[in-house]
């Protein structure tokens, strides 16, 4: 499952990033890396962007960026 498929209120653990170029580096610079647990807070009214909480801070990601983040959904 990828991050863009998670709904608000769900949480999960990042399994891997499936991108290696500038976007992959940008995601890692923002603190998104494998093994990290994050919570999906909300989607914008038109679904894009989405807001996620990571270690107490909030990041907005576009769905086309979030689809490169492979997740394991926490139950």
Brief synopsis:
The protein contains two helices and five strands, in the order βαβββαβ. The chain has helices at residues 22-29, 63-66, and strands at 11-17, 37-43, 50-54, 57-61, 69-73. The radius of gyration is 11 Å and the shape is globular.
Describe the structure.
With 75 residues, this protein is of the alpha+beta class. It has one domain (3-73): SH3 type barrels, CATH 2.30.30.90. The chain contains two helices and five strands, in the order βαβββαβ. The protein has helices at residues 22-29, 63-66; strands spanning 11-17, 37-43, 50-54, 57-61, 69-73. The protein has a five-stranded antiparallel sheet. A hairpin with a 6-residue loop joins strand 2 and strand 3. The radius of gyration is 11 Å and the shape is globular. The protein starts with 10 loop residues before the first strand and ends with a strand. The mean pLDDT is 90.
């Amino acid at each position: 499952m990828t991050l863009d498929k998670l709904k608000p209120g769900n949480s999960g653990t990042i399994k891997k990033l499936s991108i290696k170029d500038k976007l992959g580096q940008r995601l890692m610079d923002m603190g998104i890396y494998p093994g990290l647990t994050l919570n999906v807070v909300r989607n914008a009214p038109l679904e894009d962007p989405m807001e996620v909480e990571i270690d107490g801070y909030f990041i907005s990601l576009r769905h086309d960026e979030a689809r490169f983040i492979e997740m394991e959904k926490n139950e």
